[in-house]
Design brief:
Blueprint (H helix, E strand, L loop, with lengths): L7 H6 L5 E12 L2 E9 L13 E8 L14 H10 L4 E3 L5 E3 L2 E8 L2 E6 L13 H12 L8 H4 L2 E8 L2 E6 L6 H8 L5 H4 L16 E7 L3 E6 L11 E2 L1 E8 L3 H10 L4 E2 L7 H4 L4 E14 L10 H10 L2 H8 L29 H10 L6 E8 L4 H13 L2 E8 L1 H6 L9 E6 L6 H8 L11 H12 L3 H17 L3 E13 L17 E2 L5
Parallel strand pairs: 3-13, 3-14, 16-17, 16-18
Antiparallel strand pairs: 1-2, 1-15, 4-5, 6-7, 7-9, 8-9, 10-11, 11-13, 12-20, 14-19, 15-18, 15-19
Helix pairs in contact: 9-11, 14-15, 15-16
Length: about 525
């Protein structure tokens, strides 16, 4: 079935290879209610050439409010949606993990221990400070400063020196090879104006100044953040250009309320449209199901009994009907995973089969491990997660004798208690983007990760080897080998690759979801 009213630019987008994006449109029936069309998107090759006119205002409903607008202290996609509307990084990762330029004209690895960044000329911060190498040096130093207390300081610790080659060119000298460095720079190295940000009186975490497409205007705590279009924006490169004169980011925890906002016209873009609301939304707006390179899983620690026994962790994987949950609760959008490596991401191995749903085998494994009488435990999830999904997982675990009391946790508390021995041992989580697996592996799976309660010597050896390997093919091979170790000695109950479900007003129909899941009010223009 073709798509009604489809623009030529979007037809052209079908020819690209990579992601599948599905929109559900109202007014055309199908067996399940609304019809689905799919086409592929790929990174820098796909551009909107459209006629999306600048709108006066655009309201975006996120799920949670960030605690800060300090880019070194933001660790989730809701926060990054705001950070990268106000700030820019030198680069971003496009579909398939392609390195795309934003503030940088180029970023190249000239040596296993040197990355060189060349900035675009003539760019200024919102306060008039010039963008130059000092901004790179200051922003990196601030992440590394213990007083900042950034949780990603360890990953930037590979940078020993920032050399100023000229006012627009920086060389990052490394202590060890870091082929994964762009995957850290893209979300976290939002460049700061050194003079403004170093003056404590400016309180830049609450009054941010960047180079980004929007300027900070107002923060009504607990309710909204208002941004205004940056009239002097340089054009964004692959990132895109503003779609609105003013943007209101609102924080709406409840999914049904977000849908109500969209259908009433008070919001133009909302996150997390529940599957059972799709048909209603499609009457007046669009639903977009966008695959994201990321994964969902239930973290299982190995530092506490009975989860230190790999047989118990394997039993938990066999106990959960992942495909059934995908069908019933995710509208069929998802692919069951064999480990933490999703399709389209480095390390994915299509030859490795996920654990089969087999409750009988799960009970047998538990009995052989000495837990025939069952296990009692706790499973935490954040207040923004799908309680129905977590409930389904817990219900299926209970059927084989693993009783997990559910603990909904406010997201700030959740993020502060990853390694707390008093917190729930099990935790449901999603992680994206995962173009490069280094961040997830180094933080959550490595025995040295500050979010980790997993330890397997064979896995650790491969994590370290993959982090240092600069040859992409060999690095992929190492991660595929690691994937087999994680399959047999699970770090979690492996679930599915990420899919994000957005609701979009037709007033801003040119807006396109990003493969990193940031909800930025931008349009990517045709560069042809």
């Amino acid at each position: 079935m073709g798509r009604v009213g489809e623009s030529e630019s979007r037809k052209a987008g079908k020819k690209a290879q990579g992601y599948t994006r599905r929109r559900v449109l109202g007014g055309i029936g199908a067996a399940a209610g609304a019809a689905l069309w799919s086409y592929d998107l790929t990174g820098a090759a796909w551009r909107l050439s459209g006629a999306q006119e600048l709108v006066a205002t655009m309201a975006i409903d996120l799920t949670v409010e960030p605690p800060t607008l300090d880019p070194a202290l933001v660790y989730d996609v809701d926060g990054w949606s705001l950070i990268h509307a106000i700030y820019d990084a030198p680069v971003q990762l496009g579909a398939g993990g392609a390195l795309e330029m934003v503030l940088a004209e180029s970023m190249t690895q000239t040596d296993p221990l040197i990355w060189e960044i060349r900035l675009r000329p003539g760019i200024t911060f919102h306060n008039g400070e010039p963008l130059d190498v000092a901004s790179i040096a200051f922003s990196i130093a601030r992440i590394l400063d213990p007083e900042t207390a950034s949780q990603v300081a360890g990953t930037f610790g590979a940078i020993e020196e920032v050399e100023e080659v000229d006012p627009l060119t920086a060389r990052l000298h490394l202590a060890t090879p870091a082929p994964w460095l762009p995957s850290q720079i893209a979300p976290w190295l939002a460049l700061l104006p050194p003079v403004y940000a170093s003056d404590a009186a400016n309180d830049f975490a609450n009054n941010p100044v960047g180079t980004g497409p929007y300027r900070f205007q107002k923060w009504d705590r607990g309710s909204r953040i208002i941004l205004a279009r940056n009239d002097d924006y340089f054009g964004g490169g692959a990132k895109g250009v503003p779609i609105a004169d003013e943007v209101e980011y609102r924080f709406v925890l409840d999914g049904t309320t977000r849908v109500t906002d969209l259908m009433a016209g008070s919001s133009q873009l909302v996150a997390g449209v529940p599957f059972d609301e799709w048909d209603a939304v499609a009457e007046t707006a669009e639903v977009i199901a966008q695959p994201i390179v990321g994964c969902a899983f239930v973290r299982i620690p190995t530092d506490v009994a009975p989860f230190d026994n790999a047989a118990v962790r394997l039993a938990m994987n066999h106990a959960v009907d992942v495909d059934g949950i995908i069908t019933a609760l995710l509208g069929g959008h998802g692919q069951r995973l064999a480990n933490v490596f999703p399709p389209q991401g480095m390390g994915f191995d299509e030859q490795l089969a996920p654990h089969a749903y087999d409750p009988g085998l799960a009970r047998s494994l538990l009995a052989d491990a000495g837990y025939a009488d069952g296990i009692s435990t706790r499973l935490a999830y954040t207040s923004v997660d799908r309680a129905d999904i977590v409930g389904a997982i817990a219900g299926q675990l209970a059927e084989v004798g693993i009783v997990a009391d559910l603990e909904p946790v406010e997201i700030t508390t959740f993020n502060a208690t990853w390694t707390d021995p008093e917190a729930a041992p099990l935790r449901y989580l999603t992680w994206r983007p995962l173009f490069d697996p280094y961040t997830l592996l180094s933080l959550v799976v490595s025995n040295a990760g500050f979010l980790s309660r997993y330890d397997d010597p064979e896995a650790q050896e491969l994590i370290d080897a993959g982090a240092a390997e600069t040859e992409p093919e060999e690095r992929t091979r190492i991660y595929q080998q690691l994937g087999r170790v994680l399959h047999d000695s699970p770090a979690g109950i492996y679930l599915w690759n990420r899919t994000s479900f957005y609701g979009l007003s037709r007033e801003v129909s040119a807006w396109t979801p990003r493969p990193d899941d940031w909800m930025l009010p931008l349009v990517v223009e045709d560069e042809s």
